[in-house]
Amino acid sequence: MNLSQYTIKAQEAIQSAQQLAYNNKDAAIETLHLLKAILLDKDSSTEFLLKANGALKTFDDEFVTVEHLLIAILQLSDSAAKILKDAGLTEKGLVAAIKELRKGEKVQSATQETQFQSLSKYAKT
After folding, report:
1. For 9, 30, 63, 95, which has the most beta carbons within 10 A of its beta carbon?
2. Rounded to an integer, what distance in angstroms lies between the CA atom of residue 25 and that of residue 70?
3. Any residues with CB less than 8 A from the CB of 75 and at least 6 apart, and which?
4. φ and ψ at 19, to 5 degrees?
């Protein structure tokens, strides 16, 4: 796995998952560790994607993003995927939400995904 091709947020999610596995004395990083790390990140676009309710090459990104990781988890048949599916998340819905979030933009830098919805943090809703 070449982490230099992952965005900063995706790298952070993987590192957090690794730390969660270590703290639990688990021998390997499982998708549940990754899902928990993604959900615990307050500055990611995950909340928007989950609310709006997948497709890695669909976006022609140059970097692997947290969105790609969510799509990958959703495509599995493990407990992390079950949690997402039980919450109503579908691959089709997730892809549509990603497109809405990005408004046609592609991820071409390791920090670009932090710019999606950046103004919403400071705006009143």
Report:
1. 9
2. 24
3. 54, 81, 91
4. -65, -40
Spatial contact of 12 and 118, defined as CB atoms under 8 Å apart: no
> Whole-angstrom Cα distance, residue 108 to residue 110?
7
Spell out the domain ranges in the chain.
Answer: 3-104
In this structure, what DSSP letter does residue 103 have?
T
Assess contact for 106 and 89: CB atoms under 8 A.
no
Choose among 71, 73, 66, 68: nearest CA to 29: 73
Q: Are 14 and 66 in contact (CB under 8 A)?
A: no
* Phi then psi dihedrals of residue 29, to 5 deg: -80, 120
**Of 20, 71, 75, nearest to 45 (Cα)?**
71
Per-residue pLDDT of the chain (125 residues; tens, 9 = 90+): 788 899 999 999 999 999 999 999 999 999 989 989 988 887 877 777 766 664 476 777 888 888 888 998 998 899 999 999 999 999 999 999 999 988 888 888 888 777 766 655 565 55
